[in-house]
Amino acid sequence: MSKEITSRAEDYSQWYNDLILKGGLADYSAVRGCMVIKPYGFSLWEKMQAALDKMFKDTGHVNAYFPLFIPKSFFGKEAAHVEGFAKECAVVTHYRLKNDEDGSIIVDPDAKLEEELIVRPTSETIIWNTYKDWVRSYRDLPLLINQWCNVVRWEMRTRLFLRTAEFLWQEGHTAHASAEEAIEETKKMLGVYATFAEEYMAMPVIRGVKTESERFAGAVDTYCIEALMQDGKALQAGTSHFLGQNFAKAFDVKFLNKENKLDYVWATSWGVSTRLVGGMVMAHSDDNGLVIPPKIAPLQVVIIPVYKGDEKKEEINTKAREMAEEIKSLGMSVKFDDSDNTRPGWKFAEYELKGVPVRLALGARDIEKDQVEVTRRDTGEKKTIGAGGIAQYVDRLLIDIQQNMFNKANAYQQEHITPANSWDEFEKLLDEKGGFILAHWDGTPETESLIKEKTKATIRCIPLDNPQADGKCILTGKPSRQRVLFARAY
RNA sequence: CGGGAGGUAGUUCAGCCCGGUAGAAUACGUGGUUUGGGACCACGGGGUCGCAGGUUCGAAUCCUGUCCUCCCGACCA
User: Fold this and answer.
1) Could you give the dihedral angle defined by the CA atoms of residues A118, A124, A127 and A129, in that order, rounded to the nearest 10 degrees?
2) For residue A171, what are the β-bridge partners?
3) How many other CB atoms are found less than 10 A from the CB of residue A269?
4) What's the rounded Cα separation, in Å, for the pair A209 and A212?
């Protein structure tokens, strides 16, 4: 038992850390708040990237790349934006090192930058400063650009994948000729995120719009997808912002419209990050390790041989390689693990820890009966299947696992959306059940903030398809026209 | 950034209070026996005790500083 995992019941946070570290997704680094993403974790991110990138391109977007550094003065141009990010910016002040008298390396005080550079926490400012030169007329619009990059936010408290000082993400930045078109884009990309979360990550999400106080710094409206983790806490999994003309005005991005009149362009930005990896882990995994949805699993099928002496060893190997080829030819990723330094039981546990969706075990008795043992990671169910047609069987099984994982997570989410009609009930639900709570709110930031202070619960969003119904605010008793979605969140 | 805990072999940890030749388990290497849920025997390699100062004849151990991690809070994707 070299790799024991803390159970969820015992310590949920420790369980999460164990999975990330022992599952080989990431490691701590020598740099505060920054993690090393290990090959297994990175390939998971690459799977997500590939799917998302295709979806972006299918909706007309192209990729580009903007600088890591942003001149400090750019930040001052959009007031709300700078206020939101000022407290967590890394700043470059010098451009050279030198040897001190005692031989140690120091920052050369003579190499001070004329203007400090900010390591991007997000790229709106540098991008809008660039767009200014790219837009002259309505014929230049829309600009539909995305970039994959890293950003830095000097967070006080970090957690692997969920909140690191440096993280990988994509940020889309689009410019449009009308507000309507920009709003449509904002919603379209929210839809892309929701589809990706549900169809690829098997993670059901609530689509909604943020309240004023939870809004992105500089946005007119922030749309989001919110997912529910197994400990009843919510995770903001993606955001899409309608920026109005805020950045166009700040960076003076004007265009001639069809009526030959000068107007500011309308903007959106939207992003998802490596946080999704953390979300995936917390949404699906169990006390035996990771459970990865087949569509984003770096490895979908593993074949493990079970030998009895040297008897049938060659036959088993030959059959296993044949199966691997067959499975691979149907487009699945598969590994035949014939390493001889661990025994089958060890391998079973190891691949469960890694969350590989399907495991095939092949031994002498299977060869005799022309069969193979198939174990699915999501339910742990074992079946013995005829060896003929195993590739087709596994192909269908992966689809079934993907669907089952979504259904399970969806059922959990549905069970954890609870209406609360009184303050007592609200507090009790938060403490005893967790999850999303639908409650009336009087619409003021003051009440929202008071509720947060009292319970640590925030308004995750106002769901997009929210039914209108008169009621009374859960805290103040003032009139309310709809329920909003509360939860404690990551 | 406040409160608490921690950093010693790849990993998990003991040793520290009370200074005196750096330990265990596991992992790793070799040979052998094994293999249907984390095998066993034998032998072997591996650590400037997070880093930097200080006290001392002598520091993993005492003192100061610093970096990193975890947990709980305030801030956030």
Assistant:
1) -80
2) A147, A271
3) 26
4) 9
Encode pLDDT of A294-327 as tens digits: 999 999 999 999 998 887 899 999 999 999 999 9
Please check whether residue A194 lies inside any domain of the structure: yes
pLDDT of residue A102: 67
pLDDT digits (tens, 9 = 90+) for A72-107: 999 889 988 988 888 889 889 888 888 877 667 788
Q: Is residue A405 part of a domain?
A: no
Please report, rounded to whole angstroms, the spatial distance between the CA atom of protein residue A100 and the C1' atom of nucleotide B16: 37
User: Which nucleotide is closest, CA of A384 to its C1'?
Assistant: B36
Nearest-CA residue to the C1' of B72?
A157
Output the distance from A5 CA to B24 C1' rounded to whole Å: 22
Nucleotides of B under 7 A from a protein CB: 1-2, 10-11, 26-29, 34-39, 67-77
Enter the tokens of residue A251.
């960076």
Of A254, A284, A314, the residue that ends a domain is A284
Tokens of A122: 């997000």
Assess whether A187 and A101 both reside in one domain.
Answer: yes
Of all nucleotides, the one whose C1′ comes closest to residue A369's CA is B36
The H-or-E segment that residue A275 falls in is: helix A275-284
pLDDT of A245 above 80: yes
**Domain at A446, CATH number:** 3.30.110.30
DSSP-derived 3-state class of residue A63: strand
Residue pair A346/A289 in contact by the 8 Å Cβ criterion: no
List, for residues A174-194, the tens digit of each pLDDT value.
999 999 999 999 999 999 999
Give a three-class secondary structure readout of A425-489.
HHHHHHHHCCCEEEEECCCCHHHHHHHHHHHCCEEEEEECCCCEEEEECCCCCCEEEEEEEEECE
Question: What is the CB neighbour count within 10 angstroms for residue A262?
Answer: 8
A180, A268: one domain = yes
Check whether residue A280 and residue A304 sit in a common domain: no
The parent domain of residue A22 ranges over: 12-284
Residue A411 lies in a domain: no
State whether A196 and A141 are in the same domain: yes
CATH code for position A37 = 3.30.930.10
Q: Are residues A35 and A126 in the same domain?
A: yes
- Domain tally, chain A: 3
Distance A454 CA to B2 C1' (A): 20
Whether residue A446 sits in one domain with residue A360: no
- Do residue A224 and residue A336 come from a single domain? no
Could you tell me the distance in Å between the CA of residue A13 and the C1' of nucleotide B70?
10
> Tokens at residue A88, please?
């967590």
pTM: 0.96
Tokens of A369: 């009966």
A168: which nucleotide lies closest, measuring CA to C1'?
B77
And the tokens for A258?
């069809």
